[in-house]
């Protein structure tokens, strides 16, 4: 089954996977001493003016309550991280950014999906043509851009970020391209990305 881009957020981990039929020539690159992961075209990718193929998919940020992570499938990750840095609670940061940017204005009205690992809680959200859904999660929860476009409990586990990124990449959904993940151990975040090939 093809679900497009997918996100799993649980109490102490989050994993994001790019799945694509149209733009498979992309990679996930860890930047800024491990604080940001960017999805971008590979060096051999054909030129494109599509605004949805390159973006920060994961950002760690210092907040007044402690370090947090914003993760998702597009340019809305940056405003979520900025709102967290200003002290917004995770729910408000997700709602504000998802509502402001809305679903992607492409041929498929692709939903935006996002999550937050805060100092004390995890949240997941999506905005699609017909709904804006944001909820705090106490167990791993999946949302995807197609087919699985409402947050649903999902069996997912990994001991560290590298294993979580690989697990997300290896999920039995079609057209995997690359993945990124973060895990939390006490007050520390571990970030990793995988781009096979």
Automatic annotation (TrEMBL):
Swiss-Prot/TrEMBL GO biological process terms: 'de novo' IMP biosynthetic process
Domain of life: Archaea
Pathway note: Purine metabolism; IMP biosynthesis via de novo pathway; IMP from 5-formamido-1-(5-phospho-D-ribosyl)imidazole-4-carboxamide: step 1/1
Domain Inosine monophosphate cyclohydrolase-like stretches: 2-187
Family matches, as SUPFAM superfamilies: Archaeal IMP cyclohydrolase PurO
Annotated Gene3D superfamilies: Inosine monophosphate cyclohydrolase-like (3.60.20.20)
Keywords carried by this UniProt record: Hydrolase, Purine biosynthesis
Catalytic activity: IMP + H2O = 5-formamido-1-(5-phospho-D-ribosyl)imidazole-4-carboxamide
GO molecular function, one term: IMP cyclohydrolase activity
EC number(s) recorded for this UniProt protein: 3.5.4.10
Family: Belongs to the archaeal IMP cyclohydrolase family.
Function noted in UniProt: Catalyzes the cyclization of 5-formylamidoimidazole-4-carboxamide ribonucleotide to IMP.
HAMAP family: IMP_cyclohydrol
This protein's name: IMP cyclohydrolase
Annotated organism of origin: Haloglomus irregulare
Taxonomic lineage of the native organism: Archaea, Methanobacteriati, Methanobacteriota, Stenosarchaea group, Halobacteria
């Amino acid at each position: 089954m093809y679900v497009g881009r997918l996100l799993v957020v649980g109490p102490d981990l989050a994993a994001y996977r790019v799945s694509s039929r149209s733009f498979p020539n992309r990679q996930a690159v860890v930047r800024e001493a491990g604080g940001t992961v960017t999805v971008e075209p590979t060096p051999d990718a054909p030129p494109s003016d599509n605004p949805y193929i390159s973006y920060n998919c994961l950002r760690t940020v210092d907040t007044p309550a402690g370090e947090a992570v914003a993760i998702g499938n597009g340019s809305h990750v940056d405003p979520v991280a900025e709102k967290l840095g200003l002290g917004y609670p995770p729910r408000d940061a997700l709602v504000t950014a998802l509502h402001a940017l809305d679903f992607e204005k492409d041929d498929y009205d692709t939903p935006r999906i996002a999550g937050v690992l805060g100092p004390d809680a995890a949240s997941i959200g999506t905005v699609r043509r017909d709904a804006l859904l944001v909820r705090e999660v106490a167990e791993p929860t999946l949302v995807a851009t197609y087919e699985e476009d409402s947050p649903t409990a999902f069996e997912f586990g990994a001991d560290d970020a590298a294993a979580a990124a690989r697990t997300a990449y290896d999920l039995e959904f079609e057209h995997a391209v690359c993945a990124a993940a973060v895990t939390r151990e006490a007050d520390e975040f571990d970030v990793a990305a995988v781009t096979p090939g």
